[in-house]
Fold:
Amino acid sequence: MRKSFAILMFVLSFWLPSFAQVTTATNEGIHKIKHIIIIVQENRSFDSYFGTFPGADGIPMKHGVPTVAVPDPTTGKMVRPYHDTNDLNYGGQHFTVNAFADIDGGKMDGFIAQSTLGPVGLDAPDESYYRGPRGGFSKSPLDVMGYHDEHEIPNYWAYAKNFVLQDHMFEPIAAWSFSSHLFLVSAWSAIATVPGDPMSCVSSFNPPLRNAANPTPFAWTDITYLLHKAGINWAYYLDNGSGPTNTRDTTLAAEFDKVEAIWNTLPGFITVHEDSQMSNVQLLANFFKAAKEGTLPQVSWIIPSDRDSEHPIALVSVGQAYVTNVINAVMKSPDWNSTAIFLTWDDWGGFYDHVVPPKVDRLGYGLRVPGLVISPYAKKGYIDHQTLSFDAYLKFIEDDFLSGQRIDPKTDGRPDSRPDVRENNPQLGNLVNDFDFSQPPRLPIILPPYPKKSAESLKRN
Structure:
């Protein structure tokens, strides 16, 4: 026994230093990333886009046939996931009550029932803005069980095959888009019970929106406070500018070419105004200009208009083209060799997913959404099975640019009353694992915004 132990210790004396050197090299390699870009699309579950991607934790199947099914309360029948080739989807209800009903204590079987509760999708006057004039339409509640594959979304699958696909990326909160976007920039969703007082904030699934009467209701600390204090430049790019602050204007189709207030959250944070950073909230045209000139900010968020968002009833093909144009601009940029792009969708949109979300605190996690990492240092064809949420984006920003400082009321210099530091949650994975910083920077892969395969496969009823 003693001899075996001695041999083991002798082997470990060589292996452990090597392991430590690899870990240190990986952690230090993060600083090769000089530009972090977070692209956020709308309302798709992981299974609805990548449920049949090879090697991913996708829809359970046997001999190509799904082995899972969800009850349809209108017929009493069980409905399996099916391949949906439609360019226009409708989705389902996706507020907190619907999230818990969809999950149903871990049964993951409430999706069709929730989709029968009422109208969903963008509050457009009708569909004509998206798909051409036609008569009235009826929405099938079974739409939430449909999934796309590489025939409808070939570019997204191409990015997954050539870079990194994350198959356990969860919405940070069991709620809708607005609350998820608050988490995206601050790792919290809350209500300030005393206006302007960060210590009065309490966790909330559905805080009040900013509006003309209350333009800065978000009193807790967001990541831009730390970035500004550290001299890190950032920009929050809005596709075609911002829409109305207090409501959707459903009378003007032009508003659907702008960014909804529920997705445009940074202007509602007190710190952005106190730090005189509102000029960092910019038009997406400035992003394309910066990419071309090689002057991208160190941290960027890219927020879509309704039309480009993939939020039902916006077209899948239009959203994929918009994202492809953004990624192509980065790949053609002088900044490509020092960039990491994180692409995700802000909530599940009522679409089916079979994975039960982990519980990390009272607010989350929510349901699973797609996540992609695109970078010259991203591992090729790698599927990341770590448990992740948008908190991992903040963690990566903090580790890269802020020496590991967290949005932590005990250490960040601006106390608030958040109940936990999400970036430090032990269940949260580390995005550094999606990179190989020892490899030479990989060449870009320029894709056509409207690929032929997609055009041939999508139905335009």
In short: The chain has 13 helices and 17 strands.
